[in-house]
Design goal:
The complex is a heterotrimer of chains A (259), B (476) and C (226).
Chain A: E1 6-10, H1 14-19, H2 21-33, E2 36-39, H3 49-53, H4 57-70, E3 76-79, H5 82-95, H6 100-112, E4 113-115, H7 116-123, E5 132-139, H8 143-149, H9 153-160, E6 163-167, H10 183-186, H11 188-205, E7 209-212, H12 215-227, E8 233-236, H13 237-241
Parallel strand pairs in A: 1-2, 1-3, 3-4, 5-6, 5-7, 7-8
Helix pairs in contact in A: 5-6, 5-8, 7-9, 11-12
Chain B: H1 8-16, H2 19-41, H3 46-62, H4 64-77, E1 81-85, H5 88-101, E2 106-109, H6 113-117, H7 120-126, E3 130-133, H8 136-143, H9 160-170, H10 183-200, E4 203-206, E5 210-212, E6 217-222, H11 226-232, E7 236-242, E8 246-247, H12 250-264, E9 272-276, E10 290-296, H13 300-303, H14 319-323, H15 327-330, H16 341-352, H17 354-357, H18 359-362, H19 369-373, H20 380-393, H21 399-412, H22 415-433, E11 438-439, H23 446-449, E12 454-455, H24 462-471
Parallel strand pairs in B: 1-10, 2-3, 2-4, 4-7, 5-8, 7-10
Antiparallel strand pairs in B: 5-6, 6-9, 11-12
Helix pairs in contact in B: 3-12, 9-10, 16-20
Chain C: H1 2-15, H2 23-35, H3 43-46, H4 50-63, E1 67-71, H5 77-87, E2 93-96, E3 114-117, E4 126-129, E5 133-135, E6 140-144, E7 159-165, E8 169-170, H6 173-180, E9 188-192, E10 197-198, E11 206-207, E12 214-220
Parallel strand pairs in C: 1-12, 2-3, 2-4, 4-7, 5-8, 7-12
Antiparallel strand pairs in C: 5-6, 6-9, 10-11
Classes of the chains: A alpha/beta (259), B alpha/beta (476), C alpha/beta (226).
């Protein structure tokens, strides 16, 4: 009797949904290749972090309850983002600290929720992927993934198994890129300076590819690199691990086949 | 000092264009973190000590009244005096009264943030008492009429040419043709000038890193020794301390001292850690004749029992701002008052009001680096978020922003509507983005597109593609 | 002022949602104070035997620009001090605290040392003191004030020489406090870890900001002697 596949609910995140669906499909491929069955609940929109970080707890709670409802019944909930993953895994508990019933449900969801690469490495115990990517990549550690979810070694370990890929460490990998969700809208000049510093560090590594696990950071860094005319290919780490870099040009890059 | 925190954005813009400041910040942003990392690597027990330090302070805060009373008993028993001040004005008046009674003409000062908080120097000067800062960084900014830009390195924003210029303008009795190119000469000059001030001072004022309830002692840490000359050579030693500086025993303070210097500068221990207990003893041949501890409340007691209580664990090490990526771009003056960086973002609204200081807890990406290096494990981003909640309740953020958020939340809580709207928007932007793949400018997003491109969406939303593929029975 | 005191204490209690602490709680807190239990003490020095604590003490001190020399007996101290000063072209005129710990050293063996016992003045370039203890954990000297050891002697002279005996070296600050509790708490306890310094100008380390620019330890290896 074949083993029952692990039932994963994919929380695709609003930025992947809107800007780069191929990351979502890469996540699905990685999960299915690893033996999971993947569903994508239709009632998901956002994790609620923009409202939460703006001090709007009421709207944050409304959206959080929506997420909790949508993801009932899955063995695991997997998120291709440290930021949204952290919101669900940690901040939903803070949000519902004063509502015992919702808190319990949030706790149940939190226990099952993982950032994508951490899920593959820490839960599924994946040691390697079957993918090829020719290039020298450097990796940016998104703040929430790093500090809230402990995502550090896992992407590096799996990337090390990608044929043709060599990794060079970004000295300032753990320094914020300046996206910060609402921050880049409220304080664009400071955000711009932060991403300029980040871009300079990336270029200084000599890498031809930049990878990270969060679309917000990636849009921010890609936007700066292309504005500076730098030839660095920017992708979500899931695209490389899934071997799907042929499907879509890098983030912010020219799309000659585009209508 | 009048706060300019409300002008944070303008201050920040200036800071971003200030070449000297940027040079200093570039050095700081790698220097301090490297030194801290090296120091804690040598102490395997560091994480355990952080946990203990946090527990000690939490214990004190829960029993602050007891520890303050005990401290006062001990100080009094040894011939010192404790003064209780609710407001900056009461604290200023208390200090002036002591100076007047002793007919003090000049007062030397060790570094104390409380003195900045209550704007003591201006008040003393207005009342005929001359204060002289003795911490080199504080002295430099005093003669430049600036305020500190960092809690432990007040003049970090300056380059040596600026210091030299200020020395020339102030030390007018020295040879105007003297060479002041290098740091050692500048330090030597400051040493000579300030040595005379130390010797002439009538009263010495210091802060207190800690107040020990067990013995009625106050502790300061310096690297220069200025706090020691300030308190040893004068008729009276006045200590300015906010209420939360209490620590129960000498053993407890030893624990916290172990995490302080390592977090602040990466030193194993500050050069001078000085424990002061009462005035000189009858048999002593030096030491101050009087010992005064001036406690300031100014909102601390009101922070207890609130979601901001954890902020009272702060020991003013500066690690948070040393590691903050926002501070690293704009420096301390942008924050507009006494306390900059992450700890300033949490504390300043308490002391000057959220209306004045609203920008500070908003100018953060919540990267969390501050919390990860805080020796007292203070959840700084969480408390900044609490301030944002308070602002939201009071509708203090700009209207455009609030309405934008409301609009977004309206759609996000209605999935079918969200699907329709985002399907449309992604198609539109994907199409407009065209073969270039990115936008060089975008209406409503000029803040972003001024300095960065906006990558174009792929053209379809994931959810619509997924629904389509499911419908067509395709695999993903 | 007592109105302010009452208001502040009242505000604290209101915030903590309680009245003054009741008797059993107070007694518990008082006991915590008198017990003054040690918290976690790092193993770095505490796990070492005394001889290695001394080695560690000197090593840590030298890391922070303290210089040090070990001598076998008290009789070797004057030569060590005289040599230190002449090697650096420093004056041989010095002020020495009236500390009895320095009395049994035969200073007369080096008559070129012009010694004045007493409190330091601004003109004094070189000062010699004893100390209360040496903390191996961070190479820190522990000095206490008293009629025989005025605090200003640790700060006014440009060069500070400290004479310490091996048996005065302890592992940690906690050991220092334990030893001190046998006496009355002095006006000042100085923990000194290296010479005076500042990084306030372009974050460059400069020595001799206000306190001594040189700190020199002469350690008498007196484990065998008493």
């Amino acid at each position: 009797m074949p083993p029952v596949p692990i039932r994963v609910g994919l929380f695709v995140t609003c930025l992947v949904d809107l800007f780069r669906p191929s990351v979502g499909f890469a996540a699905v491929k990685l999960l299915e290749d690893a033996g999971c069955s993947v569903e994508v609940p239709a009632t998901q929109t956002c994790c609620g972090q923009p409202a939460y970080n703006s001090g709007d707890k009421a709207d944050a709670k409304t959206i959080a309850r929506q997420v909790i409802d949508a993801f009932e019944g899955f063995d695991y909930v997997v998120v291709p983002s440290g930021s949204c993953g952290g919101m669900i895994k940690h901040h939903y508990l803070e949000l519902f600290a004063d509502e015992p019933a919702s808190y319990q449900r949030a706790q149940h969801l939190a226990k099952r929720t993982y950032e994508l690469v951490s899920f593959l490495a820490d839960v599924l115990k994946l040691e390697r992927v079957d993918a090829r990517y020719d290039g020298v990549a450097t990796y940016h550690d998104s703040c929430s993934g790093l500090r809230e979810l402990g995502v550090k070694q896992q992407p590096r370990k799996l990337l090390a198994s990608v044929a043709g890929l060599s990794l060079t460490e970004l000295p300032s990998a753990e320094i914020c890129c300046g996206f910060g969700g609402t921050f880049c809208i409220k304080y664009p000049a400071i955000s711009d300076r932060m991403v300029a510093d980040k871009a300079a560090d990336i270029v200084a590594t000599g890498a031809d590819t930049l990878l990270a696990g969060d679309m917000g950071c990636l849009l921010n860094m890609a936007g700066k690199l292309t504005r500076l005319g730098k030839d660095v290919r920017v992708r979500h780490v899931a695209e490389v691990l899934a071997g799907m870099t042929g499907e879509m040009p890098p983030i912010g890059a020219r799309r000659p086949e585009h209508p | 000092m009048q706060p300019t925190s409300h002008a944070f954005k303008e201050n920040a813009r200036e800071a971003l264009g200030n070449a000297n400041l940027q040079k200093a910040l570039t050095l700081m942003r790698t220097g301090f973190p490297e030194r801290r990392t090296a120091a804690i690597a040598r102490l395997p027990e560091f994480e355990a000590l952080r946990e203990e330090a946090k527990a000690i302070k939490n214990h004190v805060l829960e029993h602050l009244d007891f520890y303050l009373e005990t401290f006062e008993q001990q100080v009094t028993a040894r011939g010192g005096q404790v003064h209780w001040c609710r407001t900056p004005q009461e604290a200023r008046e208390t200090v002036l009264a002591i100076c007047r009674r002793l007919d003090a003409k000049t007062v030397t000062k060790g570094k104390t943030m409380i003195a900045e908080e209550i704007a003591l120097n201006d008040y003393l000067e207005e009342n005929g008492v001359t204060p002289v800062e003795t911490d080199l960084g504080e002295y430099i900014i005093q003669i430049r009429k600036e305020y500190p830009s960092h809690v432990i390195a007040p003049a970090i924003h300056l380059v040596k040419e600026q210091v030299a210029a200020s020395f020339r303008a102030t030390h007018t009795d020295l040879d105007p043709d003297r060479v002041l190119d290098e740091a050692p000469t500048l330090v030597a000059e400051a040493r000579a000038v300030l040595r005379q001030k130390f010797l002439a001072a009538d009263v010495g004022i210091t802060g207190a890193n800690f107040c020990i309830a067990e013995t009625g002692s106050t502790i300061i840490v310096t690297n220069e020794g200025n706090g020691d000359l300030t308190q040893t050579l004068t008729k009276a030693h006045i200590v300015l301390a906010s209420l939360e500086k209490l620590v129960p025993t000498l053993e407890d303070v030893s624990t916290i001292l172990r995490v302080l210097a390592r977090s602040a500068t990466g030193q194993e221990f500050s050069t001078y850690t000085t424990v002061s207990t009462g005035p000189r003893r009858p048999e002593d041949t030096d030491g101050p004749g009087e010992f005064h501890v001036v406690f300031l409340d100014n909102g601390r007691s009101a922070m207890l029992g609130t979601e901001f209580q954890d902020m009272l664990r702060c020991i003013r090490c500066g690690a948070c701002m040393n590691h903050c990526p926002v501070y690293a771009t704009v420096g301390g003056h942008a924050y507009g008052w006494v306390y900059p960086g992450p700890m300033g973002a949490v504390l300043t609204p308490t002391l000057v009001g959220i209306g004045e200081a609203g920008h500070l807890p908003n100018a953060s990406t919540f990267c969390g680096r501050c919390e990860s290096v805080c020796p007292m494990k203070i959840p700084l981003p969480k408390m900044m978020r609490h301030w944002r909640e308070r602002e939201f309740e009071k509708q203090l953020s700009p209207a455009a922003y609030r309405y934008g958020l409301k609009l977004w939340a309206f759609f996000a809580s209605r999935p079918p509507l969200y699907r329709a709207a985002t399907a449309l928007m992604t198609r539109l932007l994907g199409w407009v983005g065209g073969p270039r793949g990115r936008f060089r400018s975008l209406p409503l997003a000029q803040g972003w597109t001024q300095g960065r491109d906006m990558p174009a969406p792929e053209g379809r939303s994931f959810m619509s593609l997924w629904a389509e593929r499911r419908k067509n029975g395709e695999a993903a | 002022m007592s109105e302010a005191r009452d208001q502040i204490l009242g505000s604290i209690r209101r915030s903590l949602k309680r009245g003054p602490l009741e008797e059993t709680r107070r007694t518990g807190l008082e006991q915590r104070l008198t017990a003054h239990r040690r918290n976690l003490v790092p193993a770095r020095a505490a796990a070492l035997p005394q001889a290695e604590q001394i080695d560690l003490f000197l090593k840590m001190a030298e890391e922070v620009q303290t210089t040090a020399i070990r001598v076998a007996r008290a009789a070797d101290v004057p030569a060590a001090v005289a040599d230190y000063l002449s090697q650096r072209n420093l004056p041989s005129r010095l002020v020495m605290t009236p500390d009895p710990q320095l009395d049994d050293i035969p200073w007369g063996d080096r008559p070129m040392l012009e010694i004045r016992r007493g409190r330091a003045e601004d003109r004094d370039q070189v000062g010699v003191t004893a100390c209360f203890a040496g903390i191996a954990e961070t190479g820190t000297l522990m000095l206490i004030s008293g009629p025989e050891s005025p605090t200003r002697n640790n700060f006014l002279p440009d060069t500070h020489i400290v004479v310490i005996r091996g048996q005065q070296v302890v592992a940690s600050y906690e050991e220092g406090w334990t030893r001190l509790r046998g006496k009355a708490m002095p006006r000042t306890v100085n923990f000194i870890t290296g010479p005076s310094r500042t990084g306030d100008i372009e974050q460059r380390l400069e020595l001799g900001a206000h306190g001594p620019r040189r700190l020199h330890i002469v350690l008498i290896d007196d484990e065998a002697a008493s």
